């Protein structure tokens, strides 16, 4: 099936967004927000990782790009060991990100700011340092800054001094943690969980035979009607006619005035 057919025949559009993660925009009835549907309730971490986080009373930074810090650093890395690895840094090829974000000792998440990671950050209410690389990451990082629960750095601008300065700002200024918790409260304040919302609307569409009553009339308009070309054409033609008649009337009035003036001059 052609993509255009899918777009125009879709009975339901489930959007991985929410007013807590994206800007508020107008939707049509068959567009439903289910942002965060993939986020699961936290589960117990592996014993060694749980112990690492529990014993980090001074706080933990997850996926840091720096190492000269007093707080401990949990870094997702492709190697198990690292030459010159500081004692406060723990490496792991795979880490249960959502469960780590839920731990109360986590103080900061440094990330590329992908969409799913950004949603998980908001879900758990964690301050963030966004270092976007490509795609939608730059837009997500900008939203993090605008919503006040994190900062962003351009990858090309990274220096040891700038990185440490930014991390220290995020760790010592309480406004980022406060804003992260507020944003998380907005995320969680829903009548139903995102996945339950998705299930309801899928079943709703099935129950009502595709729910054609949710489709907007604009989908069935021809292209020239959709872009209002017929209205623009009528308006343009009408305007030209009115302008033409007006010019004709003005021209006649001016000619009449000129004739009367000439007659007066001849009479005198």
From TrEMBL:
It holds the Pfam family UDPGT. Keywords: Glycosyltransferase, Membrane, Transferase, Transmembrane, Transmembrane helix. GO terms for molecular function: UDP-glycosyltransferase activity. It comes from Zophobas morio. Gene3D superfamilies: Glycogen Phosphorylase B. This is UDP-glucuronosyltransferase. InterPro entries: UDP-glycosyltransferase, UDP_glucos_trans. Belongs to the UDP-glycosyltransferase family. Signal peptide: none annotated. The keyword Lipid metabolism does not apply. PANTHER family: EG:EG0003.4 PROTEIN-RELATED (PTHR48043:SF159).
